[in-house]
Protein backbone atom coordinates (compact mmCIF):
# COMPACT_ATOMS: atom_id res chain seq x y z
CA UNK A 1 0.00 0.00 0.00
CA UNK A 2 1.30 3.45 -0.89
CA UNK A 3 1.21 6.38 1.54
CA UNK A 4 -2.10 8.19 1.43
CA UNK A 5 -0.93 11.51 0.03
CA UNK A 6 2.31 12.30 -1.73
CA UNK A 7 4.34 15.10 -0.29
CA UNK A 8 2.65 15.44 3.10
CA UNK A 9 4.39 14.76 6.36
CA UNK A 10 3.70 11.27 7.79
CA UNK A 11 1.90 10.82 11.11
CA UNK A 12 4.58 10.10 13.74
CA UNK A 13 5.23 10.75 17.44
CA UNK A 14 6.94 13.95 16.31
CA UNK A 15 3.94 15.01 14.22
CA UNK A 16 0.38 14.25 15.31
CA UNK A 17 -1.89 16.54 13.28
CA UNK A 18 -4.88 15.81 15.55
CA UNK A 19 -3.09 17.21 18.61
CA UNK A 20 -4.57 20.56 19.65
CA UNK A 21 -1.18 21.55 21.03
CA UNK A 22 0.37 22.28 17.65
CA UNK A 23 -1.92 25.08 16.55
CA UNK A 24 -2.31 26.61 20.01
CA UNK A 25 1.45 26.73 20.56
CA UNK A 26 2.16 28.07 17.08
CA UNK A 27 -0.58 30.70 16.80
CA UNK A 28 -1.43 31.54 20.40
CA UNK A 29 -5.09 30.60 19.91
CA UNK A 30 -7.34 27.64 19.22
CA UNK A 31 -8.49 27.20 15.64
CA UNK A 32 -10.84 24.73 14.01
CA UNK A 33 -8.42 22.34 12.32
CA UNK A 34 -10.36 19.09 12.74
CA UNK A 35 -13.89 17.91 11.98
CA UNK A 36 -15.39 14.57 12.97
CA UNK A 37 -18.44 13.11 11.23
CA UNK A 38 -20.71 10.57 12.88
CA UNK A 39 -21.83 8.79 9.71
CA UNK A 40 -23.88 5.93 11.18
CA UNK A 41 -25.69 4.82 14.33
CA UNK A 42 -25.56 1.15 13.28
CA UNK A 43 -23.14 -1.31 14.87
CA UNK A 44 -22.80 -5.09 14.95
CA UNK A 45 -21.49 -4.95 18.55
CA UNK A 46 -22.93 -3.66 21.82
CA UNK A 47 -19.83 -3.13 23.95
CA UNK A 48 -20.21 -2.54 27.67
CA UNK A 49 -17.89 0.49 27.54
CA UNK A 50 -19.46 2.17 24.49
CA UNK A 51 -19.64 5.92 25.06
CA UNK A 52 -22.26 6.35 22.29
CA UNK A 53 -24.19 3.14 22.96
CA UNK A 54 -27.52 4.84 23.70
CA UNK A 55 -27.54 6.38 20.22
CA UNK A 56 -27.17 3.02 18.42
CA UNK A 57 -30.16 1.85 16.39
CA UNK A 58 -31.29 -1.18 14.38
CA UNK A 59 -32.39 0.92 11.39
CA UNK A 60 -31.60 4.49 10.44
CA UNK A 61 -32.78 7.05 7.94
CA UNK A 62 -31.01 8.78 5.09
CA UNK A 63 -28.04 11.01 5.91
CA UNK A 64 -27.39 14.54 4.73
CA UNK A 65 -25.89 14.50 1.25
CA UNK A 66 -22.12 14.28 1.14
CA UNK A 67 -22.09 17.33 -1.15
CA UNK A 68 -23.58 19.40 1.65
CA UNK A 69 -21.02 18.06 4.12
CA UNK A 70 -18.20 18.91 1.74
CA UNK A 71 -19.53 22.43 1.16
CA UNK A 72 -19.21 23.08 4.89
CA UNK A 73 -15.69 21.62 4.92
CA UNK A 74 -14.76 23.94 2.04
CA UNK A 75 -15.56 26.89 4.31
CA UNK A 76 -12.99 25.81 6.93
CA UNK A 77 -9.73 27.22 5.61
CA UNK A 78 -7.74 25.95 8.62
CA UNK A 79 -8.87 22.31 8.23
CA UNK A 80 -6.05 19.75 8.68
CA UNK A 81 -7.74 16.52 9.77
CA UNK A 82 -11.03 14.71 9.32
CA UNK A 83 -12.29 11.78 11.41
CA UNK A 84 -15.12 9.37 10.59
CA UNK A 85 -16.92 7.53 13.37
CA UNK A 86 -20.16 5.78 14.29
CA UNK A 87 -21.46 3.21 15.22
CA UNK A 88 -19.54 0.99 12.88
CA UNK A 89 -18.99 3.11 9.74
CA UNK A 90 -18.31 0.11 7.48
CA UNK A 91 -21.42 -1.88 8.41
CA UNK A 92 -23.69 -0.31 5.79
CA UNK A 93 -22.25 -0.52 2.23
CA UNK A 94 -24.36 2.48 1.23
CA UNK A 95 -22.62 4.64 3.84
CA UNK A 96 -19.24 3.51 2.50
CA UNK A 97 -20.18 4.25 -1.09
CA UNK A 98 -22.13 7.48 -0.67
CA UNK A 99 -20.42 9.13 2.31
CA UNK A 100 -17.08 7.62 3.33
CA UNK A 101 -15.42 7.16 -0.04
CA UNK A 102 -16.33 10.67 -1.30
CA UNK A 103 -15.10 12.22 1.95
CA UNK A 104 -11.79 10.35 1.78
CA UNK A 105 -11.35 11.30 -1.87
CA UNK A 106 -12.06 14.96 -1.05
CA UNK A 107 -9.52 14.93 1.79
CA UNK A 108 -6.88 13.26 -0.31
CA UNK A 109 -7.23 15.90 -3.01
CA UNK A 110 -7.11 18.71 -0.46
CA UNK A 111 -4.21 17.25 1.57
CA UNK A 112 -6.29 16.64 4.72
CA UNK A 113 -5.28 13.83 7.09
CA UNK A 114 -8.02 11.24 7.69
CA UNK A 115 -8.95 8.73 10.37
CA UNK A 116 -11.75 6.16 10.48
CA UNK A 117 -12.91 4.38 13.64
CA UNK A 118 -13.84 0.72 13.11
CA UNK A 119 -14.15 -2.42 15.23
CA UNK A 120 -12.42 -4.28 12.35
CA UNK A 121 -14.65 -7.37 12.67
CA UNK A 122 -16.09 -7.34 9.14
CA UNK A 123 -14.61 -9.38 6.25
CA UNK A 124 -11.31 -7.97 5.00
CA UNK A 125 -12.77 -7.32 1.55
CA UNK A 126 -15.02 -4.64 3.08
CA UNK A 127 -11.94 -2.50 3.80
CA UNK A 128 -9.70 -3.05 0.84
CA UNK A 129 -11.43 -0.97 -1.85
CA UNK A 130 -11.14 2.39 -0.03
CA UNK A 131 -8.48 2.09 2.68
CA UNK A 132 -5.65 3.31 0.45
CA UNK A 133 -7.10 6.80 0.84
CA UNK A 134 -6.99 6.62 4.65
CA UNK A 135 -4.19 7.84 6.92
CA UNK A 136 -5.16 6.19 10.22
CA UNK A 137 -7.41 3.20 10.89
CA UNK A 138 -8.48 3.46 14.52
CA UNK A 139 -9.68 0.31 16.29
CA UNK A 140 -10.63 -0.67 19.84
CA UNK A 141 -8.74 -3.39 21.69
CA UNK A 142 -9.75 -4.16 25.27
CA UNK A 143 -9.45 -7.94 25.36
CA UNK A 144 -7.06 -10.77 26.25
CA UNK A 145 -8.89 -13.46 24.31
CA UNK A 146 -12.17 -14.50 22.67
CA UNK A 147 -13.85 -15.01 26.06
CA UNK A 148 -13.14 -11.40 27.02
CA UNK A 149 -14.39 -10.22 23.64
CA UNK A 150 -17.60 -12.24 24.01
CA UNK A 151 -18.34 -10.79 27.44
CA UNK A 152 -17.42 -7.20 26.59
CA UNK A 153 -18.59 -6.81 22.99
CA UNK A 154 -22.08 -8.22 23.55
CA UNK A 155 -22.69 -7.08 27.13
CA UNK A 156 -25.46 -4.71 26.01
CA UNK A 157 -26.90 -6.85 23.19
CA UNK A 158 -30.69 -7.22 23.27
CA UNK A 159 -30.55 -10.69 21.74
CA UNK A 160 -28.43 -13.71 22.53
CA UNK A 161 -25.20 -14.14 20.61
CA UNK A 162 -23.46 -17.51 20.76
CA UNK A 163 -19.80 -17.78 21.74
CA UNK A 164 -18.78 -19.26 18.37
CA UNK A 165 -19.97 -16.13 16.57
CA UNK A 166 -18.05 -13.91 18.98
CA UNK A 167 -14.93 -16.06 18.64
CA UNK A 168 -15.10 -15.77 14.84
CA UNK A 169 -15.35 -11.96 15.05
CA UNK A 170 -12.48 -11.71 17.53
CA UNK A 171 -10.19 -13.87 15.42
CA UNK A 172 -11.16 -11.89 12.33
CA UNK A 173 -10.34 -8.61 14.10
CA UNK A 174 -6.82 -9.84 14.90
CA UNK A 175 -6.20 -11.36 11.48
CA UNK A 176 -7.53 -8.27 9.68
CA UNK A 177 -5.17 -6.13 11.75
CA UNK A 178 -2.21 -8.35 10.83
CA UNK A 179 -3.02 -8.36 7.13
CA UNK A 180 -3.74 -4.65 6.83
CA UNK A 181 -0.64 -3.78 8.87
CA UNK A 182 1.44 -5.96 6.53
CA UNK A 183 0.00 -3.96 3.62
CA UNK A 184 1.21 -0.71 5.20
CA UNK A 185 -2.01 0.51 6.81
CA UNK A 186 -1.39 2.68 9.88
CA UNK A 187 -3.51 1.02 12.59
CA UNK A 188 -3.95 2.74 15.93
CA UNK A 189 -5.44 0.43 18.57
CA UNK A 190 -7.17 2.13 21.50
CA UNK A 191 -7.55 0.68 24.99
CA UNK A 192 -9.80 2.25 27.61
CA UNK A 193 -8.39 1.87 31.10
CA UNK A 194 -10.90 0.31 33.49
CA UNK A 195 -10.49 -1.89 36.59
CA UNK A 196 -10.53 -4.88 34.20
CA UNK A 197 -8.24 -3.67 31.41
CA UNK A 198 -5.81 -2.11 33.88
CA UNK A 199 -4.85 -5.53 35.21
CA UNK A 200 -4.08 -6.86 31.73
CA UNK A 201 -2.88 -3.77 29.87
CA UNK A 202 0.68 -5.02 29.29
CA UNK A 203 -0.65 -8.26 27.75
CA UNK A 204 -2.99 -6.23 25.53
CA UNK A 205 -0.10 -3.97 24.54
CA UNK A 206 1.98 -6.96 23.47
CA UNK A 207 -0.96 -8.35 21.47
CA UNK A 208 -1.31 -4.98 19.73
CA UNK A 209 2.38 -5.10 18.84
CA UNK A 210 2.01 -8.66 17.55
CA UNK A 211 -0.85 -7.57 15.29
CA UNK A 212 1.49 -5.04 13.68
CA UNK A 213 -0.31 -1.94 14.91
CA UNK A 214 1.88 1.14 14.76
CA UNK A 215 0.25 2.92 17.69
CA UNK A 216 -1.42 2.06 20.99
CA UNK A 217 -3.77 4.77 22.25
CA UNK A 218 -4.58 4.69 25.95
CA UNK A 219 -7.51 6.65 27.37
CA UNK A 220 -9.60 6.64 30.54
CA UNK A 221 -12.94 4.88 30.50
CA UNK A 222 -15.42 7.64 29.61
CA UNK A 223 -18.44 7.61 31.97
CA UNK A 224 -20.98 8.12 29.18
CA UNK A 225 -23.94 6.14 27.76
CA UNK A 226 -23.40 2.38 28.22
CA UNK A 227 -20.33 3.05 30.38
CA UNK A 228 -22.11 5.51 32.65
CA UNK A 229 -22.48 3.00 35.48
CA UNK A 230 -19.13 1.28 35.13
CA UNK A 231 -16.48 1.59 37.81
CA UNK A 232 -13.67 4.04 37.12
CA UNK A 233 -10.08 3.61 38.16
CA UNK A 234 -8.95 5.80 41.01
CA UNK A 235 -6.19 8.22 40.11
CA UNK A 236 -3.73 6.17 42.14
CA UNK A 237 -4.70 3.03 40.20
CA UNK A 238 -4.48 4.89 36.91
CA UNK A 239 -1.03 6.26 37.70
CA UNK A 240 0.26 2.81 38.68
CA UNK A 241 -1.16 1.35 35.45
CA UNK A 242 0.61 3.94 33.31
CA UNK A 243 3.95 3.26 34.98
CA UNK A 244 3.46 -0.50 34.53
CA UNK A 245 2.63 -0.07 30.84
CA UNK A 246 5.69 2.12 30.33
CA UNK A 247 7.84 -0.53 32.00
CA UNK A 248 6.45 -3.13 29.56
CA UNK A 249 6.51 -0.86 26.49
CA UNK A 250 7.23 -2.57 23.18
CA UNK A 251 9.86 -0.22 21.73
CA UNK A 252 8.50 -0.29 18.17
CA UNK A 253 4.93 0.68 19.13
CA UNK A 254 4.09 4.34 19.66
CA UNK A 255 2.07 4.76 22.87
CA UNK A 256 -0.24 7.77 22.81
CA UNK A 257 -1.85 8.78 26.11
CA UNK A 258 -5.01 10.72 25.33
CA UNK A 259 -7.28 12.63 27.72
CA UNK A 260 -4.76 11.87 30.46
CA UNK A 261 -6.16 12.62 33.95
CA UNK A 262 -2.86 14.02 35.28
CA UNK A 263 -1.56 17.54 34.85
CA UNK A 264 1.59 19.58 35.53
CA UNK A 265 -0.42 21.86 37.84
CA UNK A 266 -1.13 18.97 40.21
CA UNK A 267 -0.41 19.47 43.91
CA UNK A 268 0.89 15.87 44.06
CA UNK A 269 4.57 15.27 43.33
CA UNK A 270 3.83 11.80 41.92
CA UNK A 271 1.52 13.29 39.30
CA UNK A 272 4.13 15.81 38.23
CA UNK A 273 6.79 13.08 38.13
CA UNK A 274 4.57 10.97 35.86
CA UNK A 275 4.02 13.93 33.53
CA UNK A 276 7.78 14.37 33.23
CA UNK A 277 8.39 10.66 32.65
CA UNK A 278 5.83 10.59 29.84
CA UNK A 279 7.72 13.37 28.10
CA UNK A 280 11.07 11.61 28.53
CA UNK A 281 10.13 8.14 27.29
CA UNK A 282 10.99 7.36 23.65
CA UNK A 283 8.07 6.66 21.31
CA UNK A 284 5.57 7.92 23.91
CA UNK A 285 3.38 11.02 23.59
CA UNK A 286 0.63 12.83 25.47
CA UNK A 287 -2.03 14.13 23.08
CA UNK A 288 -3.80 17.30 24.14
CA UNK A 289 -7.54 16.76 23.86
CA UNK A 290 -8.86 17.82 20.43
CA UNK A 291 -12.54 17.99 21.43
CA UNK A 292 -13.54 21.63 21.58
CA UNK A 293 -9.94 22.83 21.20
CA UNK A 294 -9.50 22.17 17.51
CA UNK A 295 -12.35 19.77 16.67
CA UNK A 296 -16.12 19.66 16.38
CA UNK A 297 -18.35 16.62 15.78
CA UNK A 298 -21.07 16.71 13.12
CA UNK A 299 -24.00 14.31 13.07
CA UNK A 300 -24.38 13.41 9.39
CA UNK A 301 -28.10 12.68 9.84
CA UNK A 302 -29.41 15.63 11.84
CA UNK A 303 -26.66 18.13 11.03
CA UNK A 304 -26.23 18.92 14.72
CA UNK A 305 -22.76 20.10 15.72
CA UNK A 306 -21.42 19.22 19.17
CA UNK A 307 -18.11 19.37 21.01
CA UNK A 308 -17.67 15.59 21.06
CA UNK A 309 -19.66 12.58 19.90
CA UNK A 310 -20.03 11.33 23.50
CA UNK A 311 -20.29 14.49 25.57
CA UNK A 312 -23.27 16.00 27.36
CA UNK A 313 -22.91 19.54 26.01
CA UNK A 314 -26.02 20.35 23.92
CA UNK A 315 -25.73 21.01 20.20
CA UNK A 316 -24.02 24.29 19.43
CA UNK A 317 -25.51 24.71 15.95
CA UNK A 318 -26.44 22.87 12.78
CA UNK A 319 -24.59 22.66 9.48
CA UNK A 320 -27.84 23.17 7.58
CA UNK A 321 -27.85 26.77 8.77
CA UNK A 322 -24.48 27.54 10.39
CA UNK A 323 -20.85 27.71 9.32
CA UNK A 324 -18.52 25.45 11.31
CA UNK A 325 -16.08 28.28 11.97
CA UNK A 326 -18.88 30.36 13.49
CA UNK A 327 -19.99 27.46 15.70
CA UNK A 328 -16.43 26.92 16.88
CA UNK A 329 -15.99 30.57 17.82
CA UNK A 330 -19.28 30.42 19.71
CA UNK A 331 -18.00 27.41 21.66
CA UNK A 332 -14.78 29.20 22.64
CA UNK A 333 -16.95 31.72 24.52
CA UNK A 334 -18.91 29.00 26.35
CA UNK A 335 -18.38 28.93 30.15
CA UNK A 336 -17.25 25.28 30.02
CA UNK A 337 -14.64 26.12 27.43
CA UNK A 338 -13.33 29.02 29.48
CA UNK A 339 -13.10 26.80 32.58
CA UNK A 340 -11.07 24.04 30.90
CA UNK A 341 -9.17 25.83 28.11
CA UNK A 342 -6.15 26.62 30.24
CA UNK A 343 -2.76 26.55 28.54
CA UNK A 344 0.77 26.18 29.90
CA UNK A 345 3.38 26.52 27.17
CA UNK A 346 6.42 25.61 29.27
CA UNK A 347 4.70 22.52 30.73
CA UNK A 348 3.25 21.49 27.36
CA UNK A 349 -0.31 21.20 28.64
CA UNK A 350 -3.60 22.41 27.20
CA UNK A 351 -5.91 21.31 29.98
CA UNK A 352 -8.41 18.49 30.53
CA UNK A 353 -11.07 16.65 28.60
CA UNK A 354 -14.55 17.71 29.76
CA UNK A 355 -15.67 14.25 30.89
CA UNK A 356 -12.36 13.54 32.63
CA UNK A 357 -12.46 16.88 34.44
CA UNK A 358 -16.00 16.19 35.63
CA UNK A 359 -15.14 12.64 36.75
CA UNK A 360 -11.92 13.41 38.62
CA UNK A 361 -11.64 17.16 39.18
CA UNK A 362 -15.18 18.49 39.55
CA UNK A 363 -14.07 21.09 42.09
CA UNK A 364 -11.15 22.45 40.04
CA UNK A 365 -11.25 25.60 37.96
CA UNK A 366 -8.39 24.86 35.59
CA UNK A 367 -8.29 28.44 34.32
CA UNK A 368 -7.01 29.51 37.74
CA UNK A 369 -4.28 26.90 38.09
CA UNK A 370 -0.63 27.17 37.06
CA UNK A 371 1.93 24.53 36.12
CA UNK A 372 4.52 23.69 38.77
CA UNK A 373 7.04 22.11 36.36
CA UNK A 374 8.51 22.68 32.93
CA UNK A 375 9.18 20.26 30.08
CA UNK A 376 12.64 20.68 28.59
UniProtKB/TrEMBL annotation:
It comes from the Bacteria. Gene3D superfamilies: Aldolase class I. The keyword Hydrolase does not apply. InterPro entries: Aldolase_TIM (IPR013785), rSAM (IPR007197), rSAM_sf (IPR058240), rSAM_YfkAB (IPR031004), YfkB (IPR014866). It holds the Pfam family YfkB. One of its GO terms (molecular function) is metal ion binding. Keywords: 4Fe-4S, Iron, Iron-sulfur, Metal-binding, S-adenosyl-L-methionine. Residues 27-256 form the Radical SAM core domain. This is Radical SAM/CxCxxxxC motif protein YfkAB. The lineage of its organism: Bacteria, Bacillati, Bacillota, Bacilli, Bacillales. The gene is yfkAB.
Amino acid sequence: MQPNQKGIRPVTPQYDPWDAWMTRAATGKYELTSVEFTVTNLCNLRCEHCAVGETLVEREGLPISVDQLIRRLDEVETLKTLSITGGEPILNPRVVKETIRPLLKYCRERGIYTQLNSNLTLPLSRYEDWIEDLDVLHISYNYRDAEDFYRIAFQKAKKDVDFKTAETLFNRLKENARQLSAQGVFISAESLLSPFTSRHIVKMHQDIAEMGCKRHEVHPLYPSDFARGMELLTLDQYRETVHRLLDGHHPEVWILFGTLPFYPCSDKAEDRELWQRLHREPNVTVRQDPDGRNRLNVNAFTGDVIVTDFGDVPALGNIKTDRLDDIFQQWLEHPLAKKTHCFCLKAKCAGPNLLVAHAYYADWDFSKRRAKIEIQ
